[in-house]
Amino acid sequence: MDPFGEQIWATWLGLAGLLVVAELMSLDLVLIMLAAGAASAGVAALVGAPLVLQILVGVGVSAATLAFVRPTVLKRLHGGPEITMGPRSMIGMTVTVDQPISASTPGKVLVNGEIWTARPLDERESMDVGDLVDIYDVQGSSVHVVKRPDMTELG
User: Fold this and answer.
1) Which residues, in sequence order, are bridge partners of residue 146?
2) According to the model, what pLDDT value does residue 151 have?
3) CA-CA distance, 144 to 136, in Å (whole number)?
């Protein structure tokens, strides 16, 4: 004997609807996963599954969506461009040499109005005042730079 009668599917779908409304207030993406479980239990009830099977279907779908769907959705919602702050944000910038740079003598570059000690990434390379260089790495208060290729030579 079924305690909810033959319309138990409506109870499951009503529960799913309440969970969806509650999710709109919490925005945790937990209640919506439980609503999916309740809705699937409602579908099981519609096809005539016994109450125990309906509960197992609802719990199974809820657990599966919480374990597999929610993390993926959260990653997509909270994912975005990686924001680099501090000295690491200088990597990739093109700057002008202010003091000659060589492996034996670190030079200076001007980065966003600040003078930084610069060392060549390739120790065989040297840069003169006015050369354009790219910042390749930041280590402490020094930057490692590489000389930009001369675009007239490439053409």
Assistant:
1) 134
2) 55
3) 6
- Residues 24, 1 contacting (CB under 8 angstroms): no
Pairwise pLDDT comparison (146 vs 3), residue with the higher score:
146
pTM above 0.90, yes or no: no
- Residue with tokens 């996963």, as numbered in its chain: 33
pLDDT band at 135 (very low <50, low <70, confident <90, very high): very high
CA 33/CA 65 separation, integer angstroms: 6
The DSSP string of 44-63 is HHHTT--HHHHHHHHHHHHH
Helix (H) or strand (E) holding 138: strand 132-139
Give CA separation, 62 vs 24, 35, 88, 146, in Å: 18, 8, 42, 54
Kind of pairing between the strands at 132-139 and 142-147: antiparallel
CB within 8 A of 131, min separation 6: which ones? Answer: 96, 97, 147, 148
Question: In this predicted model, which residue has the larger pLDDT, 2 or 55?
Answer: 55
